[in-house]
Design a protein that fits this description.
Layout: H1 2-92, H2 96-125, H3 135-158, H4 168-187, H5 195-198
Helix pairs in contact: 1-2, 2-3, 3-4
């Protein structure tokens, strides 16, 4: 009887000890899982913050580049736009007298516009974007600036015969330039500027 009681007591102690160890192991595993989850959450938050910081830097660089380009070219574009307006007025003149009055003005403005186009092309060729733009965006910008350069080249040619000027090819080049700039701004969640308006 004593022997049986002893065995029963020993079995009870072993069972209780085993349960206790099992609970401790479960708690340790839960703690480890919790720590791992916290570490993963922390890493994800750090990555998110880093991406937001990088995106903010790119946004600032792109806006700085856009403003610098507009400031560089606005005065040249003003002369081209003014000459186009005079050509349009000439083409809409209803009498020969009106046309004669505008003819000299159109010729002078066209010559100024051609000079402005040359200067704009030189400005584009020497233009330096923000150093914070990543390489892929620099490549996109280079492509868009080639279209803008082509716009000024086509505009210059169009002024050769001012009274019969056709700026459709030039406008196509500017449209392509605007579309490429639009893609760059949209890629970094920025409001897309209308550079045709901003350059006037």
């Amino acid at each position: 009887m004593k022997h049986t009681l002893f065995i029963f007591t020993l079995a009870t102690i072993i069972t209780v000890a085993g349960c206790s160890n099992g609970e401790n192991m479960d708690e340790a595993e839960e703690k480890q899982d919790s720590e791992q989850t916290n570490n993963e959450d922390s890493e994800q938050e750090e990555d998110k913050q880093e991406n937001e910081n990088n995106n903010g830097t790119i946004q600032s660089a792109l806006m700085d580049t856009q403003m610098a380009l507009v400031q560089e070219l606005r005065s040249y574009n003003d002369k081209i736009t003014s000459a186009k307006d005079d050509i349009e007025a000439y083409s809409e003149a209803e009498t020969e007298e009106e046309k004669e009055e505008l003819k000299q003005k159109v010729q002078e403005k066209s010559s100024e516009a051609q000079q402005a186009a040359d200067e704009a092309i030189q400005a584009i060729e020497s233009f330096e974007p923000s150093e914070d733009l990543p390489e892929d965006m620099n490549n996109q910008l280079d492509s868009s600036l080639q279209d803008l350069k082509a716009y000024y080249e086509e505009s210059k040619q169009s002024f050769d015969n001012a009274s019969e000027s056709d700026f459709s090819k030039a406008e196509e080049q500017f449209k392509s330039f605007q579309e490429k700039i639009q893609t760059m701004f949209e890629d970094v969640d920025l409001h897309v500027p209308n550079l045709g308006d901003e350059m006037q």
